[in-house]
Design brief:
Residues 1-75 form the ATPase dynein-related AAA domain. This is von Willebrand factor A domain-containing protein 8. With 91 residues, the protein is α+β, with helices and mostly antiparallel strands. It has one domain (3-90). It is built from 5 helices and 4 strands; from the N terminus they run αββααββαα. The strands form 2 sheets. It has a two-stranded antiparallel ribbon. Strands 3-4 form a two-stranded antiparallel ribbon.
Length: 91
């Protein structure tokens, strides 16, 4: 498993465009759920480095260009920009 597979998978739409599908790990982070990383000891050390930012900083940059932010930074950004959740997610 590569670092990219751990976070998102690229797939092709019927019209030939490519899109990204979030992994169960990213979905769990978005929904505030726990993840059991069974067999993680078999994963390449470079792949594990991707997890450090998510676990330690509670933030992550994804391959589709979106970012996961911890709650306090998200709320501060929302207040500074005077935007709704929907507007921030589109951005």
């Amino acid at each position: 498993m590569t670092a990219r597979d751990l976070l998102q998978q690229r797939y092709t739409l019927p019209n030939g465009d490519t899109a990204w599908r979030s992994s169960p790990l990213v979905n769990a982070a978005l929904e505030g759920k726990l993840v059991l990383l069974d067999g993680i000891h078999r994963v390449n050390a470079g792949t594990l480095a991707v997890l450090q930012r998510l676990i330690h900083d509670r933030e992550l940059s994804l391959y589709d260009g979106s970012r996961l932010l911890r709650e306090d930074r998200y709320m501060r950004l929302k207040d500074e920009l005077q935007m709704s959740d929907e507007q921030l997610q589109k951005r």
